[in-house]
């Protein structure tokens, strides 16, 4: 009489393949969630930096002391006075801003943006417009 207490090779391979497929799917889902969170964090940081520059500009008196932001294809830089080191913020992987039209973001002392504009923001396969409207309002995103 044969002992039937164990599993056959086919049963073991079936269970191992199911476990490996499920673990692969969970890793893929978590990586996409991390990427999405990085992109949302980037938008929040850009919004906060823009509001900060707007507030500091309304406080500073002379044009030389007013901070501004320059946009490059894979990072943006916040410039303050010559005595203070600029802040460089890199874009997350897969994020790019088209800066062919406008590279600078400056505000007037009353808090209005100097040149209202829009910029193209690419996040992976998705395309957005960052719109900086005239006035003291925040920028907003528009999906294209």
UniProtKB/TrEMBL annotation:
Subcellular localization: Cell surface
The UniProt entry, under SUPFAM superfamilies, shows: Pili subunits
Q: Report the superkingdom from the record.
A: Bacteria
Report whether Ligase shows up as a keyword of the record: no
Signal peptide positions on this chain: none
Instruction: Indicate whether Ribosomal protein appears among the record's keywords.
Output: no
Keywords, ordered alphabetically: Competence
Q: What is this protein called?
A: Prepilin-type N-terminal cleavage/methylation domain-containing protein
């Amino acid at each position: 009489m044969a002992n039937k207490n164990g599993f056959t090779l086919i049963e073991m391979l079936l269970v191992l393949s199911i476990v490996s497929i499920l673990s692969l799917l969970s890793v893929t889902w978590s990586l996409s969630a991390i990427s999405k969170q990085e992109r949302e964090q980037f938008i929040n940081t850009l919004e906060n930096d823009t509001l900060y520059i707007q507030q500091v500009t309304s406080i500073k008196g002379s044009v030389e002391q007013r901070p501004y932001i320059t946009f490059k294809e894979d990072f943006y830089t916040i410039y303050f006075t010559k005595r203070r080191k600029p802040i460089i913020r890199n874009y997350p992987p897969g994020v790019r801003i088209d800066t062919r039209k406008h590279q600078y973001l400056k505000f007037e002392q009353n808090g209005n943006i100097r040149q209202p504009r829009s910029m193209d923001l690419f996040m992976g396969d998705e395309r957005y417009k960052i719109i900086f409207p005239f006035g003291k309002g925040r920028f907003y995103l528009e999906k294209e």
